[in-house]
Amino acid sequence: MDEEKKEIIREDTKNFSCPGCGGNMIFNPEEQCLSCSYCENKIEIKAESNNMVEYDFDSADELEAQDWGEEKRLFKCGNCGAESIFDKDKIAQFCPFCGSSHIAENSDNIGIKPTLIVPFKIKKNDSEEKFKVWIKKRFFAPSDLKKSYKMDKVSGVYLPHWTYDSNTFSNYVVKIGTYYYVTETHWVTENGERKEVSQQVRKTRWRTEQGTYAEFFDDVLCNASSNVESGLVKSIEPFKLKELVDYKAAYLSGFVAERYSISLKDGWNKAKTEIDNRIKSGIRNQVFGDEVRIENVATAFSNITFKHILLPVWISAFDYKGKVYRFMVNGQTGELDGESPVSALKVTLFIIAIIAVIALLVLVI
Ligand SMILES: [Zn+2]
Ligand SMILES: [Zn+2]
Fold first, then answer.
1. Integer Cα distance of 298 and 127 in angstroms
2. PANTHER family in the record, alphabetically (predicted)?
3. Can you say whether the dihedral through the CA atoms of 235, 236, 241, 246 is positive or negative?
4. Which member of 19, 138, 279, 323 has the greatest number of CB atoms within 10 A?
């Protein structure tokens, strides 16, 4: 069978065991240290920042492969001895037999290695509390939602991200519109009398202009996981990238960490779309006119660099009347966003109320 041709890779993992009792030590967001799940033992993690390095995008081509489809990675649990499969898109996960946390060694099997990380700051309990507050405030949510939703397990995931820097130089063509007014006269008949009425009418005079625009973009962020909706991740941004520290496996203990599934190149194409939009609004700000239409922008990108980083997110979902709604909490700032059910009745009542207000205003005026 073709299936059997899959390459089997042995992945060495890091597993932090307590020097006191042998239990699994996991990262504690509150104290930023490793804590034993069974005894009171704690081990300090020294936060360092030696890895604040930008990598050259053009020389990274050979590291582009991100289709992990064919390979099968196995790891042996040092805690219980069982051998299990590393999910194809994970670099940290739990042993399915004993639940202990395992982190893939920073080997070549994981592709481009993350060099920096924002460790979790928000505890699991706090993310659950944030959710409860958020769900209460859903204005259009059905009234029985608070009582009848069923919340899934909240899991802490480090999501891979790319950040890009680039110099840009753009040549642009814009159409600039300037308003002017003309007096137009026409005849009307009022009370059987014909008379001439004149009024001011706004017109726009257009001219074409060319120019150049230059901007340096720093740390344009791009989600590198195809397992989460980029829109949902975007809505819990910003992350404070000033708080990035050197990647250490200890920060991942007790969490899941994903391996990137959006390649460095695909990520750059997404980042470029964002940069293009920011260039356009930059051009709009430097051109004066009553109206500005951007006809054409040609941008040259140079000195493109990147970093591969991990960002903390609490992910969960809740079930309401058989439908699943996802939500996310920013593991650094506590910002929450998600989908929630909408009550058709509440929306209808809201629209009726608006119509009533408008009708009232019309009557009064
Ligand atoms: Zn212990
Ligand atoms: Zn195990």
1. 44
2. FLOTILLIN BAND_7_5 DOMAIN PROTEIN, J DOMAIN-CONTAINING PROTEIN
3. negative
4. 279
Q: Which ligand is nearest to the CA of 26?
A: 1
What is the 307 CA–ligand 2 centroid distance (Å)? 33
Domain of 246, in residue numbers: 2-163+216-263+305-345
CA distance 329 to 315: 7
Which ligand is in closest contact with the Cα of 21? 1
Which residues crowd ion ligand 2, with CB under 5 Å?
77, 79-80, 95, 97-98
Tens-place pLDDT, residues 195-238 = 888 889 999 999 999 999 999 999 999 999 988 888 889 999 99
Residue 140, in any domain of the structure: yes
Per the domain annotation, does 176 fall within a domain?
A: no
State the distance from the centre of ligand 1 to the C-alpha of 42, rounded, in angstroms.
8
Beta strand pairing status for 72-76 and 8-10? Answer: parallel
Say how many Å lie between the CA of residue 107 and the centre of ligand 2.
21
Tell me the CA–centroid distance for residue 28 and ligand 1, in Å: 14
Distance 79 CA to ligand 1 centre (A): 13
For residue 2, the model assigns a pLDDT of 47
Q: Which of 27-36, 185-194, 289-298 has the lowest mean pLDDT?
A: 185-194
Q: Strand pairing partners for 158?
A: 257, 312
Ligand whose nearest atom lies closest to the CA of 101? 2
Is residue 25 within 8 Å of 262, Cβ to Cβ? Answer: no
Query: Is 275 domain-assigned?
Result: no
Backbone angles phi, psi at 10, to 5 degrees: -90, 125
Distance of CA 43 from the midpoint of ligand 2 (Å)? 22
Contact present, 23 and 75 (Cβ < 8 Å): no
- Measured from the alpha carbon of residue 84, the closest ligand is 2
| Both tokens assigned to 57 | 């995008």
The string of pLDDT tens digits covering residues 286-307 is: 999 999 999 999 999 999 999 9
Q: Is residue 296 part of a domain?
A: no
Cα of 26 vs centre of ligand 1, distance in Å, is 11
Q: Calculate how far, in angstroms, residue 324's C-alpha sits from the geometric centre of ligand 2.
A: 31
Q: Is the pLDDT of residue 178 over 80?
A: yes
Answer yes or no: is pLDDT of 158 > 60.
yes
